[in-house]
Write a structure and sequence with these properties.
Layout: H1 2-35, E1 47-52, E2 57-62, H2 75-85, E3 91-93, E4 113-115, H3 116-125, H4 129-140, H5 143-156, H6 179-189, H7 193-199, E5 203-205, E6 210-212, H8 217-220, E7 224-232, E8 236-245, E9 248-255, H9 260-274, E10 275-280, E11 286-288, E12 291-294, E13 299-304, E14 309-315, E15 327-335, E16 338-347
Antiparallel strand pairs: 1-2, 1-9, 3-4, 5-6, 7-8, 8-9, 10-13, 11-12, 12-16, 14-15, 15-16
Helix pairs in contact: 2-4, 2-6, 3-4, 4-5
Length: 349
Amino acid sequence: MRKLFFAQRLNVDFIKRAAVLVAAVAVFTLALIGDTHFAEASGATSACVAMEPVTRTVLYSRNADVHLPMASTTKIMTALIVCEECDPDRIISVPAEAAGVEGSSIYLRAGEEIDVRDLLYGLMLRSGNDAAVALAITHSGSVESFVDKMNARAAELCAHNTHFLNPNGLPAEGHYTTARDLCTIACAAMQNNLFREVVGTKSWHGRYRSYANKNKMLYNYEGATGVKTGYTVKAGRCLVSSAERGGMEVVCALLNEYDMYAVSASVLDSCFEKFALYALSPEKVFMCGGVPCSVDKTYKFVARRSDVLRYECTPQKSALRCENKSACGKLKIYSGNSLIFGAKLYSII
């Protein structure tokens, strides 16, 4: 009997320990899933591209050309078009279609008066889906016509792996972009002064509305200049961020990145640490085939800080045929063994 009792006791202890072990494995597995960002989006892929916006030099990329939903970072294109083509001081009456749009909202009421500028700030600071619809109809007369404009503008920017179906990023089959395309669109948008002013604003007090910006990068990252957050269950957490340090700006696009703020900060830090933006002006003189020459305007290019720049001048004409302001040769600049810049050289004598 005693042996049977101890055997039963051992079996019970074994079962309890096995149950604890199974529970521990389950918790650990869930932690791994969370860490690899499977929990928040329907797809497993996250993607990232960082660029210098003036030269569009890619400084970092991961899964750059994978088609992914982009949630409210869609509104970067919406805002760019409105900034380029609408009067920000125009006062509109909110169309009925813009009232009660699902998701994030600035709570527009059908028929209320508001200006385009306050709608823009509501779009980008508070991610108002209703503001996106109101702006789309204000610009194009209908959401459908505005979406056609969005896709045409994407094509103009060579964002050929992007397709828009709405102006706000609400989930829709066939509404997608890539990290490379989204970063390209954001780089173009950041060249627009009004867009840049809007997305770099922490708080806004307009004629009709006041808002605080949701983008935590503006508060927590040194030199942050914009631009837009996004989230849906399907798209996961998305963030396009930008910052400027040491005379260089970097734009970083993240798609389906659970810890989007930390990852964005890490990518930006790495880009600023590794790369620099250089300017080449007409004041710099090169001897090309015995003729003093210079470039015709100021050019900018990006190079790794650790690389030694090498300048190579190749004459295209003999010295006797080089007249003042005529093209006499070509300049090539190498960073390490990589060609990073080329331009014509013009005689200055």
